[in-house]
Specification:
Two copies of one chain form a homodimer.
Chain A lengths: L7 E5 L4 H12 L5 E4 L7 H6 L8 E4 L2 E4 L1 H11 L10 H26 L4 H21 L12 H5 L1 H13 L11 H11 L2 H4 L5 H18 L2
Parallel strand pairs in A: 1-2
Antiparallel strand pairs in A: 1-3, 3-4
Keywords (chains A, B): Transferase
Family (chains A, B): Belongs to the GST superfamily. Tau family.
Protein name (chains A, B): glutathione transferase
Chain lengths: 225, 225
């Protein structure tokens, strides 16, 4: 779908939910691209050149022009490649998609991570409460098979963190943050979403990622003793 | 510019930088709208109905459909009313505008507020350092008269917080966060921006706002003693 002149590159790191968002979007649009795996312990010159402010992945590079922030990248991809739109065409529906994606980033990503990676019991309870409240709001919002209706859209892609990362990290801490019983609609959505062919082939392998987070969790526990 | 059938309403509160963003955008586009002043101590039924999640202003209401989050509202307004565009037409430039507006929200708004409204000296120093660093990054980014070049765009509107609110609250704490000497380009920008006819007539009156923040600051100081 890209011309010979085009350079489409993604600086990423396997295991990052934000990188995964971009991978899903590119695959949905059937864009060929070069994936450059970054070592986040020893960042490449390229990463520092393209993202001197945050020095983080993902960085999407299109004809030598870098784009940063996963949701900004998704908007860009949707504007450049029109096939299989990920934002709705109706302006009001677009605004809702932007709102809910921001809601996921502001209210769910950090709070649910901290629900696992926090030692202080009281602090941790607070994060669990916050995540639960936000997940409940999202549960109430989900009307169809996907947030995009019959097809995956912007919000579904943003919510890959909920479908894949939360179940993974909650297992490490034996936490019941996101379960079938608590959020039946959201849970069903997550199963549909994870089994979508495009999503499925773009998820990182679970075991090494589990081991990575487990080591981090154990390190945190050890340091607190 | 609106038809008789249209209802365009803004639930706001004078003195909110996020509401001010929407007011500037609407004025730039010459959209007539009804401003509903909210009492944030005693929130209206309408606000609770339209924004049950955050219960905050601004809420932009277009034909009974509520839109929340100031930057999401700006995108919506720009999509619905095409005159005097606030986002660039080029997709890459659009992505940059989205990136920098998010940067302002993520890195400057909170850190600079906390540079004033924090009692603990060490914490406060940390916020001042963070704000200074972020303002420096923005200073380096500014190339023309406005972030939008010769005309005000999305980033300029998002940055109204820097032009109007930071100078106001820093005076309360006798803080030199954003000055001509430290950030000459950004400071010049702020003067151009504040004197732009559309911006000028949409800024809240300074004195009552100063008194409001001063009372908050004094209350904080008193409570810490």
């Amino acid at each position: 779908m890209t011309t010979n002149q085009e350079e489409v590159k993604l600086l990423g790191a396997t295991g990052s939910p934000f990188v995964c968002r971009v991978q899903i979007a590119l695959k949905l649009k059937e864009i060929e691209y070069k994936f450059v795996e970054e070592n986040l312990v020893n960042k490449s010159e390229l990463l520092l050149k393209y993202n001197p402010i945050y020095k983080k992945v993902p960085v999407f590079v299109h004809n030598d022009k870098p784009i940063i922030e996963s949701l900004v990248i998704l908007e860009y991809i949707d504007e450049i490649w029109k096939q299989n739109p990920i934002l709705p065409s109706d302006p009001y529906q677009r605004s809702l998609a932007r709102f809910w994606s921001k809601f996921i980033d502001d209210k769910i990503v950090l709070a649910s991570s901290k629900s696992v990676f926090t030692i202080d019991e009281k602090e941790r309870e607070k994060h669990i409460e916050e995540s639960t409240e936000a997940l409940q709001i999202l549960e109430n919002e989900l009307k169809g098979k996907f947030f995009g209706g019959e097809e995956i859209n912007f919000v579904d892609i943003a919510a890959v963190f909920i479908a894949f990362w939360i179940p993974l990290v909650q297992d490490i801490a034996d936490l019941q943050l996101f379960t079938d019983e608590k959020f039946p609609k959201l849970y069903n959505w997550s199963q549909e979403f994870l089994n979508h062919p495009v999503v499925k082939q773009n998820l990182p392998p679970r075991d090494p990622l589990f081991a990575f987070f487990k080591a981090r969790y154990d390190g945190l526990l050890a340091a607190s003793k």
